[in-house]
Design a protein that fits this description.
2 copies of one chain form a homodimer. With 215 residues, chain A is α+β, with helices and mostly antiparallel strands. The first copy, chain A, contains 5 helices and 10 strands; from the N terminus they run αβββαβββααββββα. Chain A has one domain: Electron Transport, Fmn-binding Protein, Chain A (Pnp Oxidase, Chain A, Roll), CATH 2.30.110.10. Chain A is 18% helix and 36% strand. The two termini of chain A are 32 Å apart. Chains A and B meet through strand 1, strand 2, strand 4, strand 5 and helix 3 of A and strand 1, strand 2, strand 4, strand 5 and helix 3 of B.
Chain lengths: 215, 215
């Protein structure tokens, strides 16, 4: 039933529709693999796109920001928004510029967010921490009341959405395949480096496994 | 002079303004390091954000897409747009959820794009190839006329912009620094894997240096 909602006129993919995947599980996998979403809202006739940390919780997406952020306030007011998550997976070297492309997974969710009420903010922040920094939460103190007051959290229902997966090979014109030109794919992945201790880290505190063994 | 243009009311950074950098050279460095921009336009009162390959050419940004793409057509018509490039550089593990954050570099350019006229499309596509796949162009055949006809290219002047660099350490409350919790940064970088030859690659064609030695 949820998947059927993905077929709205607005999120139907017109270009390269063979890349569209109508499976909610694929959408969830893309959303769960990303760290940063690009979220657009319109303010005074001008669209703005900002990168935001997010988390999926079942059929909703959680976004958080400062009460001082104008765009967060627009989201909290229920402005129409578009949340896009893009995972870049590779460069596709075709034998022509025209067919050169990228491997990627992309999710888009449209809707009007709603503000998460005060009494549910702490739980929502915990879900955000669990997504962005898995394992971290048990090491952190409770949220201070003034921190919660300074944070706006909005949720966006996953109702109108699309997901697109491009994972193929160069798709050259038959006339180009015999050209003496290398063709293939260079995979791209996100690599995590060695953890760098904060300058004010107290002595004797080991790097926890959830930091060194981040998937 | 160009840098002064970044101080428009719309792109002034309200949150954490100390992260804003008023230097055009920093903007250019961020734009030149990215592969994919997230571009927002408004269509029928709904903002849409799509990932797009792009290239900077001096004081303009070039975007290309299919003539069949509704969003490309909106851009070519001169719709107000927002182009955002985000480079995620690290996860910042602070001693509270509230201070946890990310290292990133982010650029935003606002404006109304214009369509690149037919006679300048080939040169613009070459600039896009040079940015996305440096070194590749000399190996590629000329564009076919029908390929150019099927491609829309728009340019967006770099006039109203902002750039933000977050490269710091956890900024914990003094009362939290003595907590027995690890704090620091996990760097993030984009890693390129071993090139994968296309299934239809003809024998005897070596992988070119611009593929193996991609910076």
């Amino acid at each position: 039933m949820v998947a059927a909602l993905s077929a709205s006129q607005r999120t139907r993919i017109r270009r390269l529709p063979e890349k569209q995947v109508d499976e909610r599980s694929v959408l969830d996998a893309v959303l769960d693999a990303g760290l940063v979403a690009h979220v657009a809202v319109v303010d005074d006739d001008q669209p703005f796109v900002l990168p935001m940390g997010y988390a999926r919780d079942g059929d909703r997406l959680l976004l958080h920001g400062s009460t001082g952020s104008r765009l967060m306030r627009r989201l909290a007011e229920g402005s129409r928004c578009c949340l896009t998550v893009t995972l870049l997976d590779g460069l596709v070297f075709a034998r022509s510029a025209f067919e050169s492309s990228m491997r990627y997974r992309g999710a888009m969710v449209l809707g009007r967010p709603t503000a998460v009420p005060e009494e549910h903010k702490a739980a929502a922040l915990d879900l955000l921490t669990d997504h962005l920094l898995p394992g971290r939460r048990t090491d952190l103190r409770a949220h201070h009341r003034k921190e919660l007051a300074a944070t706006l959290i909005v949720e966006l229902a996953i109702e109108e959405w699309s997901v697109k997966v491009s994972d193929g090979w160069p798709d050259d014109d038959p006339g180009d395949v015999d050209l003496p030109v290398w063709a293939g794919v260079v995979p791209i992945r996100t690599a995590y480096g060695e953890p760098l201790p904060a300058p004010d880290l107290r002595p004797g505190i080991a790097v926890p496994p959830y930091v060194t063994e981040r998937p």
